[in-house]
Design brief:
Elements (H helix, E strand, L loop, with lengths): L1 H19 L9 E6 L4 E4 L15 E4 L4 E3 L8 H10 L5 E4 L3 H9 L8 H4 L14 H5 L2 H12 L10 E3 L5 E5 L2 H24 L8 H12 L19
Antiparallel strand pairs: 1-2, 1-5, 2-3, 3-4, 5-7, 6-7
């Protein structure tokens, strides 16, 4: 269980980072991390203040929603995390917040348009927003249906390329290869949402970024011929060629 203990520690740190980054208030939000080998994930307990959260409070749950370890109830969003882990086999981290600007876009039930290169560096297009849940979906198994709405909306795009989404009338979810990447994507999403809001306030008639500039920025970082960043570690005194 050593690896699961380490996972609990990492997930605890990621949840604290949500609070430290100002992405959550009160008890809103959560980060989880999955150990694919065991099929067990660690997640924040429900209704616990971030200031009070300790590593031992993090709950271990399996993909059948059975609590494996922990005396506290896991997050009320646990079933949504399970749906995403089952649907997206390459992810091992999920984050959910009610951060101000991303949640405002979700409440407006609008995708976030790509208005600049900051956005284009991470997503090759708009950040999608789901459709509304139906009355039947809300009153059946709400958290599972929330996950299903996310999957439904991403039907035409790759979850590996679009690692964030807005749930209409609710708030954002992000994911990644591990809980740390899910956290990073939450931070990025909030900044993109804020920039888009401010841009439209300054110029309500602004156009989306051109496809040429959008693709240039995205592909230079994520494409087959990407050249952003370092391809190898440069030793002191070594020529950077």
């Amino acid at each position: 269980m050593r690896s699961l203990k380490d996972l609990k520690e990492r997930v605890w740190k990621c949840n604290l980072a949500l609070y430290e980054q100002g992405l959550v208030k009160e008890t809103f939000g959560n980060v989880s991390g999955l150990d694919r080998e065991s099929g067990i994930f660690a997640i924040k307990p429900s209704g616990i203040q971030y200031k009070e959260l300790q590593p031992e409070d993090i709950v271990l749950v399996d993909l059948d929603n059975n609590v494996i370890e922990g005396i506290l109830n896991p997050s009320s969003d646990t079933k949504t995390h399970i749906v995403l882990y089952k649907a997206f086999p390459k992810i091992n981290g999920v984050a959910h917040t009610h951060s101000t600007f991303a949640t405002a876009w979700a409440q407006a039930k609008l995708p976030i348009p790509c208005l600049g290169t900051t956005h284009a560096d991470f997503i090759q297009g708009d950040i999608p927003c789901t459709n509304d849940l139906t009355k039947v979906q809300i009153n059946s198994d709400y958290e599972i249906e929330t996950g299903n709405k996310i999957i439904e909306r991403l039907n035409s795009v790759s979850y590996s390329d679009v690692k964030m989404i807005l749930v209409a009338g609710h708030a954002p979810f992000t994911w990644g290869l591990d809980p740390e990447e899910a956290l990073k994507n939450t931070i990025i999403l909030e900044e993109i949402a804020k920039l888009a809001y401010l841009t439209i306030k300054i110029n309500p008639l602004v156009n989306s970024l051109s496809d040429d500039l959008l693709n240039k920025h995205y592909l230079r970082k994520h494409g087959d011929k990407a050249y952003y960043g370092q391809r190898k570690k440069i030793k002191f005194g070594e020529d950077n060629v």
